[in-house]
Amino acid sequence: MQGIGTSPGIGMGKIFLYIEPKIEIQREDIQDIEGELARLEDGMNTAKAEIHNLYENTLEKMGKDKAEIFMAHKMMLEDPEFIDGIKQKISSEGVNAEWAIKETADMFISLFENIEDEYLRARAADLKDVSNRLLRVLLNVESVDLASIDEDSIIVAEDLTPSDTAEMNKDKVVGFITELGGRTSHTSIIARTLEIPAIAGVKDATSSVRHGDYMIIDGSTGEAFINPSEDIIKSYRKKLEDIREFKEKLKSVIGEKTISKDGHRVELAGNIGTPSDIDKVLENDGEGVGLFRTEFLYMDKDRLPTEEEQFNAYREVAEKLGDRPLVIRTLDVGGDKEIPYLNLPKEMNPFLGYRAIRLCLDRVDIFKTQLRAIYRASKYGNIKIMFPMISNIQEVRNAKKIAAEVREELKKENIPFAEDVELGIMVEIPAVAVHSQAFAKEVDFFSLGTNDLIQYTVAVDRGNQTISKLYNQYHPAVLRLIKMTIDNGHKEGIWVGMCGEVAGDEKLIPVLLGMGLDEFSMSASSILKSRYLIKNTSKEEIKSMVDTILDLPTAEDVEEFIDKHILS
Ligand code: PEP
Ligand code: MG
Fold first, then answer.
1. Residue 451 Cα to ligand 2 middle (Å)
2. Contact (Cβ atoms closer than 8 angstroms) between residue 517 and residue 486
3. Which of the residues 73, 186, 264, 475 is marked catalytic?
4. What's the predicted TM-score (pTM) here?
5. Catalytic annotation on 186?
6. Among 400, 255, 383, CA closest to 328
7. What is the rounded CA–CA span in Å between residue 452 and residue 332?
8. Partner residues linked to 225 by β-bridges
9. What does the alpha-carbon distance between residue 522 and residue 515 come to, in Å, rounded to a whole number?
10. From the CB of 451, is ligand 1 less than 6 Å away?
């Protein structure tokens, strides 16, 4: 069985086939309208009480962020459009509550499902979850009890709702397989949070397995084996044991500085998208935040975030980090990140279009509001400001000029801020890497954004599946641009970091160390692994191999060289 691996790791256990009882709804004519409305009210109260319990339970086990979904569910049961729609149907059409719920929910669900925005589309699943709960309560239908799972089990389901994942016995669930969903679906996100291996997008999964059969899943490769041979079981037991041992080893580097085997210090930071992500960075002992993708503050609203809202978000993270650095990147929208309320024109090539700093230098109102919020927060920690998608020197100068104006304004208003906030740029366009010595004279630091740098260097849209094989971080041209940027930064006396995915790539970390990269910023879960790797790597030894690597003709040669001479 093969699907998309959405949460890494290996799970071995019995299949728990999870098929929700089908709820059949019939339309019935009702005489006692008042009685039916009261029955609906009772049902809603019971459903709300259930949701409240799920909220409390999730809050305790998984934290506020993950519990929030149940607040949203409760609000759906209080939403006047939804509830009045149901009541209206009961009163005006004289139908039973169940029918009215189904009709009203179906209408809203199809509305949501036809929206292009992935986030809003996901709300359809929440509404299904809420209305099914209400229907189950009214019809007295018992649901399958995921809390009763008492031996290591892999849940196989069409999809799992937030209620399902909150109710299940997390100590005994060792894997998920779902027919629906992808990397960003609710089940995948929860699986990664709970570190439960998961595979999504397995067509007909529920009809091709038997409850109680033995199964192994590999959430990294997306493979699953039903009733595997002794040999396969043995080899996966060994892999599982290795993973456990490695995790234990990683714990040993918590609290340590990141110093290579031959004594060179680098900084290992985390990337965050929302203020609450900082908790995972701290848990994994990050030495700072090398990239705060602030656009999420703009994307989860239907209007621009106010200065105050942004200030609170930046201050919260800055305070949690104390004197550890926090690099806040100014708004980077456009490309694949849309903000519908800005009504930006559709473009032929959004990745080459009106995005990030290009938009900010044009919409100075938006840019200044953000810079004011960042400067105000700078008093509460060690904040640095980073401009994305810089392509020429004039943009850097304009951005710095606007930042200076903001500082002047704050001074005039007697609003305090830190005077020494460093200003840096992302190096994610080849033109900047090639000409990086000139840029280095203008700024305090560079951070290599390899996600974009790769796509612009090899002319491969980073989101296009058809040509994804051509998107390759080991391409010698990409590595040359990285090396050139680090060298030029150092020539001008500034520090050079990296916040693209390559910073957490286990094969490239030693090479980047050898090239002299000063800061590596990555997803929180990669931090300890990377520290362990750096502690066991000698920088000088790799440094002597860098020229040879850069002279290799192909990406495959680079990978092979690293496997053979560095990682073995
Ligand atoms: C990058 O381009 O490498 C980067 C870190 O920015 P984003 O992925 O947000 O474009
Ligand atoms: Mg980028």
1. 6
2. yes
3. 186
4. 0.72
5. yes
6. 383
7. 12
8. 216
9. 18
10. yes
